[in-house]
Design the sequence.
């Protein structure tokens, strides 16, 4: 038995995860812009870039579960 509401709940969770990734990217960037230690800034930049990869992965999952949104991405060349 598969819950009919499961895809909607999955999408909601994935979109909330995307919000978290975007907030993390912004926070890391803010820290990079203010930290004076070059080595620390480089490590934070690496972590920020990993968060960007997570955002792409989440976007792919959302496209898989939401055909309408997938079509909108495709229409915009994304």
Sequence:
């Amino acid at each position: 038995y598969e819950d009919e509401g499961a895809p909607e709940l999955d999408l909601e969770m994935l979109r909330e995860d995307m919000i978290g990734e975007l907030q993390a990217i912004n926070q890391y960037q803010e820290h990079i812009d203010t930290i004076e230690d070059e080595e620390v800034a480089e490590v934070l930049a690496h972590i920020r870039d990993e968060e960007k990869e997570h955002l792409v992965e989440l976007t792919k999952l959302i496209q898989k579960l939401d055909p309408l949104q997938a079509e909108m991405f495709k229409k915009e060349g994304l």
User: Anything to note?
Assistant: Residues 26-78 form one domain. The mean pLDDT is 93.
